[in-house]
């Protein structure tokens, strides 16, 4: 089973300026988050960014925030402030999975039309795979990812873009997430699975992003 870029959404959890300095390998994880965001922009993957209690923990790292804005312009997504540790508890799940919507070009009530003229409701294209990375892995990322699994999303955790205050907490979260059904991957796995072939027009740019030092 491999990632498909046209079925993926990227979710970045709480890369905030007052939080990152206290985290284990925080600079490395942030660097990989920036690479993921650039890849998402390249493949037009929607990017969702959460911020936990921004009044207290500060805004997102400004360089990452700028990259996210560019990626959202290319592929969609939104920045989502929250107070709950799980972003799903604050309503993010509804944004990740848009509802079906009926479209009736003739106007009026579609049910009043003869059966052969009625149009079926047209669903918004649904992306069922969430590629997730962030801080703190054992708290906000874990609780968000478990809730997404409960809502039947496929969840892929980018391990080298995740961090906690201690390595033990981060790794315990990885064990629990894998046991719950999440896939554990790295930034480069995501890049080459979205790419798939050296014949892809984004091959050269993907290689350039991959070869950059993460931090």
UniProtKB/TrEMBL annotation:
It holds the Pfam family Isochorismatase. Transmembrane segments: none annotated. InterPro entries: Isochorismatase-like_dom, Isochorismatase-like_sf, Isochorismatase_domain. Residues 127-188 form the Isochorismatase-like domain. It comes from Hylemonella gracilis. Residues 97-122 are annotated as: Disordered. This is Isochorismatase family protein.
